[in-house]
Write a structure and sequence with these properties.
The strands form two sheets. A seven-stranded parallel sheet has the order 3-2-1-4-5-6-7, sandwiched between helices. Strands 10-9-8-11-12-13 form a six-stranded parallel sheet. It is α/β, with parallel strands linked by helices and 372 residues long. The protein contains 18 helices and 13 strands. The chain folds into two domains: 3-171 and 350-371, Rossmann fold (3-Layer(aba) Sandwich), CATH 3.40.50.2000; 182-337, 3-Layer(aba) Sandwich (Rossmann fold), CATH 3.40.50. It starts with a strand and ends with a helix.
């Protein structure tokens, strides 16, 4: 029997969109296929009740931090030795995992999941918060029993700051959800439109996005600007677009679920992926699957895409002047990503749920080696 407990002390999973919860249901189902007696438990911080998503997943959620740890201690004492703690970050969630493990007197193995490109200089230089967090990375990386990265380039950067970490790290990207009507909803014709998809945060390259839109508007009077998602800097973005007389050309949709988003892709000429630090690039890959090319800033997570599909769906802005940006966008408005790119990406992500489940089962047994 395998127990996997995701220590979500920040409530990221339960506060996110239903698509995030559905993704974890798929993880739980994959785990059950490999071990019929397995349990995936999400120990989260949020208030509210959750309907039965699947018989293979359980959500324990407490708003109060004190009650969170009380329930966590009770849960951990009830679990058998084949248990893995999954920490969604190497900071708060890892610390919570250590506390829970310490006070239940069980040396349960911990897997640290890294979604940000924490080993890159671009990530560290984004803000002061990241520079402080970088100081504590080595502590958790050196002590975690296993680590999960989402791309090989992310792991390469990690190896530079923590030599030898590769020996206990697996690269398993985050699965991408695709609509069943993929062919019907893909881009089919020229669209003079640019979009950003995802969390609206300055770290995602919002300033660069406004600059690019300003350049494009000079040559494309009918330009449409789509902003898909929500975040702490949405109002900042509105103000910046208003200042450059771009707001009237902009469409803010707010947060969209996977089904709603699938209906939007055919409206985009291209999407912008401008985060200076991108570990994997889920939105970029999803865009390519729907035939929409990607205008990007070079980052570790997108380098692999360029190596495979460069010139057939992804182009970088780095080093281009205004005229070159305009010419590139003109080309992208009518460009439709070839089907072989879509098929390649879909084939890549088909088995990711099973791969992650296998890594959890393997990780849950590591305590036997450490306690012998």
């Amino acid at each position: 029997m395998t127990n996997v407990v995701i220590v979500d002390v920040k409530g990221v999973i339960t506060k996110s969109s239903p698509d995030v919860l559905f993704r974890h249901v798929q993880y739980a189902d994959a785990l059950a296929r490999l071990d019929s007696k397995s349990r995936l438990i999400i120990l989260s911080r949020n208030k509210g009740r959750y309907d039965l998503l699947s018989k293979n997943i359980e959500i324990i959620s407490e708003k109060s931090l004190l009650n969170y740890f009380r329930k966590g201690f009770k849960l951990f004492r009830s679990l058998n030795e084949n248990t893995l703690l999954v920490s969604g970050d190497p900071w708060e969630s890892y610390l919570a995992s250590l506390i829970l493990r310490k006070f239940t007197s069980k040396h349960l193995p911990i897997q640290v999941q890294l979604h940000a490109d924490v080993g890159s200089s671009s990530w560290r230089s984004l803000n002061g918060r990241n520079r402080i967090r970088a100081l504590f990375l080595s502590y958790s990386l050196n002590r975690a029993e296993t680590i999960r990265c989402v791309s090989t380039s992310q792991l390469t950067n990690l190896e530079r700051i923590s030599p030898g970490v590769s020996s206990k790290t697996e690269v398993i990207p985050v699965p991408i959800q695709f609509d069943y009507d993929l062919e019907q909803n893909k881009k089919r014709q020229k669209k003079v439109a640019i979009a950003i998809v995802g969390r609206i945060h300055k770290d995602r390259g919002l300033e660069e996005f406004v600059r690019i839109c300003k350049i494009l508007k000079k040559s494309f009077r009918s330009l449409k600007i789509y902003v898909i998602g929500e975040g702490p800097h949405e109002e900042w973005l509105r103000t910046a677009l208003q200042k450059d007389d771009l707001l009237k050309s902009s469409i803010f949709t707010g947060q969209m679920n996977q089904k709603e988003l699938s209906l939007m892709w055919k409206n985009f000429g291209c999407i912008a992926s401008l985060a200076p630090s991108e570990a994997y690039g889920r939105s970029a890959r999803e865009s390519l699957v729907y035939g929409v090319p990607v205008l990007a800033t070079r980052s570790s997570g997108l380098v692999g895409l360029e190596e495979v599909f460069g010139g057939n769906g992804i182009w970088f802005l780095d080093g281009l002047d205004d005229k070159q940006v305009t010419e590139l966008f003109k080309r992208m408005t009518g460009f439709i990503v070839p089907d072989y790119v879509r098929d390649s990406i879909i084939n890549e992500v088909k088995s990711l749920d099973d791969e992650l489940a296998k890594s959890w089962i393997k990780g849950s047994r590591l305590h036997r080696q450490t306690t012998k």
